[in-house]
C-alpha cells in the first residue's frame, strides 16, 4: 500500500502542488484546507504523516499539533511563512518532526517526507537497547513505555530517547544526538535537540511528577541516569 499523507494547507495553489508532487513520488496524498477538515480526515486514518500549515483560517497549526500529540505519535512536518528561529523551535517543542518555510520546493518537501518516514521507522540506532529501569522498549511497535505507561512521542523524540536508553550513563553531545535523530544533521540546530529533550522531559513528568531521568551536561549534551 502507498503511504497515505494528509496535507493541511489553505492556499489552493500550494496544496495542489504538494499533492501532485507527493503523488508522483509514490505517496497517496489527501488535501484539506481547514483544521475542521483535518480533524475529520484524521479520524479516517491511518495516515503515515501529516504536512501541516501553521496559518490555517480556523485554527493555528500549532494547536492542531497539540491535539494530535495527545493521542498519537504521527509524524508532522510544519509549513509556515514565518522564518524566525523562535517559531521553528516552538513547532519542534510541540512535537513537530520537521519545519519548512514558504516559499519552498515541492521536490524538497517530498525529500523531507521520505527522510522523516525513514527516521520514524524502528531501525536500530547502534544495537537494540535492553529494558532499562523504568523504561521498556517495544521494538516491533516502535513504542517506549515509562513506568508502565506508553509515551506518545514524535519520531525524533523516539529516536533520541531510544539512543539514551541504549547507553545509560553515556554522555551524548548534541552533535552526536543530531547524527542519530536526523538524516541531514547539518539542517538541524543544536537548539532543536534542546527543544526535543525539553518535550521528552515534560512527557516523562506527566507520568511521574518527580521523574528526572535525563541529565544535562552543560556545554556538552545529555545522558540517561544509570540508577533509576
Which features would summarize this protein structure in a list?
single chain, alpha/beta, five-stranded parallel sheet, 8 helices, 19% strand
Q: Can you describe what's shown?
A:
With 228 residues, this protein is of the alpha/beta class. Helix content is 40%, strand content 19%. The chain contains 8 helices and 11 strands. Strands 2-1-3-4-5 form a 5-stranded parallel β-sheet, sandwiched between helices. A 3-stranded antiparallel β-sheet has the order 6-7-8, with helices on one face. 37% of the residues are buried.
Write the layout of secondary structure elements.
Blueprint: E1 4-8, H1 12-24, E2 28-32, H2 35-42, E3 49-53, H3 61-69, E4 76-80, H4 85-93, E5 98-101, H5 106-120, E6 135-138, E7 143-146, E8 149-150, H6 155-166, E9 172-173, H7 174-181, H8 190-207, E10 214-217, E11 221-224
Parallel strand pairs: 1-2, 1-3, 3-4, 4-5
Antiparallel strand pairs: 6-7, 7-8, 9-11, 10-11
Query: Strand order, biggest sheet?
Result: 2-1-3-4-5
* C-alpha Rg (nearest Å): 17 Å
What order do the helices and strands follow? EHEHEHEHEHEEEHEHHEE
Largest sheet properties: 5 strands, parallel
The whole-number mean of residue pLDDT values reads 84
Count the beta strands: 11
Q: Percent of residues in helical segments? A: 40-55%
- End-to-end C-alpha gap: 42 Å
Tally of individual helices: 8
Amino acid at each position: 500500500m502507498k503511504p497515505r499523507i494528509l496535507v493541511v494547507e489553505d492556499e489552493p495553489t500550494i496544496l495542489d502542488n504538494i499533492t501532485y508532487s507527493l503523488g508522483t513520488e509514490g505517496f497517496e496524498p489527501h488535501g484539506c484546507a481547514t483544521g475542521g477538515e483535518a480533524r475529520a480526515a484524521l479520524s479516517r486514518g491511518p495516515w503515515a504523516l501529516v504536512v501541516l500549515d501553521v496559518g490555517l483560517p480556523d485554527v493555528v497549526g500549532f494547536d492542531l499539533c497539540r491535539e494530535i500529540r495527545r493521542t498519537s505519535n504521527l509524524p508532522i512536518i510544519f509549513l509556515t511563512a514565518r522564518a524566525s528561529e523562535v517559531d521553528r523551535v516552538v513547532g519542534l517543542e510541540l512535537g513537530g518532526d520537521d519545519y519548512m518555510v514558504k516559499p519552498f520546493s515541492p521536490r524538497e518537501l517530498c525529500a523531507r517526507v521520505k527522510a522523516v518516514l525513514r527516521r520514524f521507522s524502528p531501525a536500530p540506532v547502534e544495537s537494540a537497547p535492553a529494558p532499562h529501569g523504568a523504561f521498556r522498549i517495544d521494538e516491533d511497535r516502535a513504542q517506549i513505555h515509562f513506568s508502565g505507561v506508553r509515551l506518545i512521542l514524535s519520531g525524533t523524540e523516539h529516536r533520541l530517547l531510544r539512543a539514551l536508553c541504549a547507553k545509560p550513563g553515556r554522555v551524548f553531545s548534541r552533535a552526536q544526538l543530531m547524527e542519530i535523530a536526523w538524516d541531514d544533521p547539518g539542517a538541524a540546530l543544536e537548539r532543536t535537540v534542546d527543544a526535543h529533550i525539553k518535550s521528552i522531559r515534560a512527557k516523562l513528568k506527566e507520568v511521574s511528577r518527580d521523574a528526572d531521568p535525563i541529565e544535562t551536561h552543560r556545554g556538552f549534551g545529555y545522558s540517561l541516569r544509570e540508577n533509576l
